[in-house]
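Below: protein 1.
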Amino acid sequence: MATTKDKDLTIEDRLRQLYALQAIDSEIDKLQILKGELPMEVNDLEDEIVGLGTRVSKLESAIQDLETEKTNHLNKIKEAEMLAERYKKKMDEVKNNREFEALTKELEYQELDIKLSTKKIRTSESNMEIKNESLENAKGKWEEKKNDLEAKKVELEKIKEKTDKEEIKLNKKGDKQRKVIEDRLLRAYDKVRSAYRNGLAVATVERDSCGGCFNKIPPQIQLEIGMRKKIIACEHCGRVLVDSSLTEKK
């Protein structure tokens, strides 16, 4: 096969070039399938761990705020109790009803403040209980996802060790193969290849059907494909069609 782009190549030669490139690309695709969805799973787990870490931090901050809130209310209660005690002592020393009523109101105010702060403490404690439960769940999931991530990374690394060398080798081989194919054909090949999940742009005729979309190929078209006088694409999927004998090594 020519090693540089040669416009004088026969249609058969060009078909062989395209099929050879397809064979290389298909091998690369197999290696990617071997890796499976692991790289995507690793990325998803990393994102999930970041999200859980943020949730843990927010919950810890919220619990700290509730602790501070509880402490503030406890201090308010102590202060109110001290004032109440002081007002009670003063009531023994009052000289008229006006002072008595004023002290009574102050005492009622402090008792009300104590009740309100006590209620808010119970609310803070209830919220803390809920937040702590959520925090424990989030931490548990966080640890679980981190363990999953480590396992996935180890699994991926093992697969990469097996496939990376072969993939590099195939990529070099594919780059070399691309250099001998006419630009127009290469663009068409890449366009068709990118349109299908299996990356198949060159298909053989198998059992009178396109090996890519499995639609029937008319006998006359099959005859023309076998003659290799022109490049023929499947009228259903656009893949370049080659007869099975062309795929056999010379």
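Below: protein 2.
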Amino acid sequence: MAEEAKTTIAFNDIPAHHAYTIGSGLIVPRPIGWLGTVSADGIANLAPYSFFNMVANNPPTFVVAPMLVGRKDSLDNMEATRVCTVNVVTDETFAAMNASAATVDADVDEFEHAGLTAVVSDGCPAPRVAEATANFECRVVDMIPVGRPLEEGRPGSGMLVILESDRLHVADRVLDGHHIDQAELKAIGRHAGAWYNRTADALTTLDRPE
């Protein structure tokens, strides 16, 4: 089969925000890192991030990369307290997740703003979303600058935050032994702009070759 017509793009030749819109539109769907954090002054914060994934399992290890231009309070809070929660976004919390993405003052509690309940666990001072189907309690193990330094005020860099989890809270209805019922979970995936996908509407299976 012949290769279809393609445009070749040299990323050095285009603005960084164009590289963002192109890359984030192609690397899809992405899981959403819905992070619960707390400031050094005890103010709860909740914000979603789409540069997020799980990268190891012993212990469960996650990476999230907040941008340094227009940085949210989450990064400041993780630097100060070295803890956070990762809350799983599903159909039930889809609208609330979107509400928590609003830009509000640092002294505003995003849990209250989004109409959610903050729960603090014994093992982690960062708040988790009571309404979320699952919550990982995490600690920050490293922060690594990534991308080029800021140039002419354009976004070009972020902070890669590595998180490890030693505790999970998960709804009984989705837990099947040591597996998660994917149809019951109804997870939400991130695309670009205002685009998301509901996995409950698009689940399929494909057996791996032996």
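The chain has six helices and 13 strands.
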